[in-house]
Amino acid sequence: MSKQFDVIVIGGGPGGYIAAIRAAQLGKNVACIDEWKNAKGGPAPGGTCTNVGCIPSKALLQSTEHFEQASHHFADHGITVKGLAMDVAKMVARKDNVVKQNNDGILYLFKKNKISFFHGRASFVKVADGGYEIKVTGAAEENIVGQQIIVATGSNARALPGTPFDEELILSNDGALRIQSAPKKLGLIGSGVIGLEMGSVWRRLGAEVTILEGLPTFLGAVDEQIAKEAKKAFDKQGLKIELGVKVGDIKTSKKGVSIAYTNAKGEAQSLDVEKLIVSIGRVPNTIGLNAEAVGLQLDERGAIVVDGDCRTNLPGVWAVGDVVRGPMLAHKAEEEGVAVAERIAGQHGHVNFNTIPWVIYTSPEIAWVGRTEQQLKADGVAYKAGTFPFLANGRARALGDTTGMVKMLADAKTDEILGVHIVGPMASELIAECVVAMEFRASSEDIARICHAHPSLSESTKEAALAVDKRTLNF
Ligand code: FAD
Ligand code: NAI
Questions:
Q1: What is the distance in A from the centroid of ligand 2 to the CA of 283?
Q2: Percent of the chain at pLDDT above 90?
Q3: N or C: where does the chain have the smaller number of CB atoms within 10 Å of the terminal CB?
């Protein structure tokens, strides 16, 4: 007889492995199936995030930021560095080791929580015994039955039509994170999150980086004032971003990649680069899941259709993370995974989609939560805005990084914080306070009245809150 589980989780990325842990904590007998292989063919749970996403990209961003600091900014502190060099192979090996530590950590967590891990691909077979029969193929080969199924199969990079990824010259995020030496010239299509993060990594190591963006505006989802400030900083660094282009033929040869495109003025242009990273968004992944066998409903993009609680059209089948609607972010996937496990256990899981933070880990970092000024205008909401520049913050001056600002938006009548937008040092950490504030429905006055340590970057958040009421103390 097939092994029976209370819950089977398909996919071991942040959505899946976290759902499995929470379900196990709540007393369920849980299996998690994940097919990701490491270089030796062994299991590498953690999904896109751990293997070719959040973790390796941040490892490379950190290494190259150190190099950038040593190359251009240590001198300001009186530090002279002679013979500075970057060993790219070592940087990549370190990144691989960071990934492995995370893979191993998840395998340990599966053991600790008594979760049965299957290394292989899962597909639906049929409705069975009041649940669903799932076939596992790969390193593990067997059919198992789950009363409840959580699908967390993630997403894949979107290719340009007619230009498949070969991961040598035309790179997805996967190949982009495995480049072994800095190309002289690097092209990227799409100036979204990956375009900016990966473009920054290789620019810091000396590549001439050109990013071709289809839209006429830079970072359209970001508050306009913040996006403008970020663009100024990227321009200064020499990151070349061409907006409003239309990409045409892409040809590869021994020399590299040649991209024909028209610029914003409609003029024909071409760009020759050693390698091209295509970062134009991601598509939900249900490849090989055999969703048809049980009638699991997908939408026209291939995403699994779910309601606000991650319920699919099938009783007992749930879906979370990149494979469903909503932002493709690891922490969003995790929150949904936890909420679904809690719902399965009869609790009231909850995800607040209005307070999911976004972070772009460039230098300066860009982070935000809630609505932008443009969105508030479009929604007809009366608001007050307060900004505070890092230039006026003592800690930022001491750090030697005064780029950017904190911008707070609050309801004109109630003073409730509706959005916070940051560009500047450690924006990724500063945004957490703003998420907490919004989650507790704080007013800007609440933040303005809270004692913030001095000197700290977080004083800029307090000052932005004071600025909402036009009473900054240090500007
Ligand atoms: P995934 O992480 O994609 O995991 C899905 C897993 O399911 C994979 O392991 C896959 O092998 C497995 N799988 C799929 N089908 C099957 C099957 N049939 N059987 C068995 N296993 C299967 N987000 C952030 O929040 N912060 C960041 O800094 C960040 N950086 C990123 C950088 C890059 C370069 C990229 C590409 C993405 C980044 N993201 C970031 C996005 C983040 O990686 C995703 O939002 C997140 O991984 C989604 O989690 P998930 O669990 O839904 O899917
Ligand atoms: P993205 O959606 O962030 O950006 C894609 C960009 O490509 C957009 O600006 C879009 O206008 C442009 N584009 C689309 N088609 C184009 C075309 N044919 N020609 C020129 N430009 C085109 O997608 P990206 O960068 O691929 O990242 C995918 C997702 O991964 C992100 O949306 C995010 O959810 C996640 N991610 C998150 C990170 C983080 O949280 N720090 C880091 C990296 C990725």
A1: 11
A2: 99
A3: N
Query: Closest Cα to residue 249, out of 236, 259, 235?
Result: 259
Partners of residue 389 on adjacent β-strands? 405
Same CATH topology for 3-157+283-351 and 355-468? no
The verdict on domain 3-157+283-351 having CATH code 1.20.120.1200 is no
Calpha distance 441→107 (Å, rounded): 38
Q: How far is the CA of 49 from the centre of ligand 1 (A)?
A: 5
Q: What number of helices (H) and strands (E) belong to the chain?
A: 13, 22
Judged by its nearest atom, the ligand closest to the C-alpha of residue 173 is 1
**Residue in the structure block whose two tokens are 């049929």:** 126
Residue 158 CA to ligand 1 center (angstroms) comes to 14
User: Which residue out of 54, 151, 179 has the highest number of ligand 1 atoms within 8 Å of its CB and is therefore the one to mutate?
Assistant: 54
Alpha-carbon distance of 320 to 315, in angstroms, equals: 15
Q: Per CATH, is 355-468 categorized as 3.30.390.30? A: yes
454 as an active site residue: the answer is yes
pLDDT at residue 130, rounded to an integer? 80
- In the block, residue with structure tokens 């029976």: 4
Single-letter residue type at 101 = Q
Which DSSP symbol is given to 70?
A: I
pLDDT at 338: 98
pLDDT at residue 273 greater than cutoff 90 = yes
Q: Rounded to whole angstroms, how far apart are CA atoms 23 and 115? A: 9
- Compute CA distances 6 → 24, 123, 270, 327, 338, whole Å: 10, 17, 56, 29, 16
Is the CB of residue 330 below 6 angstroms from any atom belonging to ligand 1? yes
CATH value of 170-279 in 3.40.50.150, 3.50.50.60, 3.30.1490.20, 3.30.300.30: 3.50.50.60
Atom number in ligand 1 closest to CA 329? 45
Q: How far apart are CA 134 and CA 290, in angstroms?
A: 10
Radius of gyration in angstroms for the set of CA atoms belonging to the chain, rounded to a whole number:
24
Ligand 1 in reach of 333 Cβ (< 6 A): yes
Is-contact 284 322, C-beta < 8 A? yes
Question: In the chain, what are the domain boundaries?
Answer: 3-157+283-351, 170-279, 355-468
Closest CA to 176 of 246, 323, 274, 258: 274
- State the pLDDT at residue 139: 84
Q: Is the CB of 195 under 6 A from ligand 2?
A: yes
Q: Of 66, 73, 350, 454, which one is the catalytic site residue? A: 454
Decide: 165 and 175 in contact? Cβ < 8 Å: yes
Q: Give the pLDDT of residue 64.
A: 98
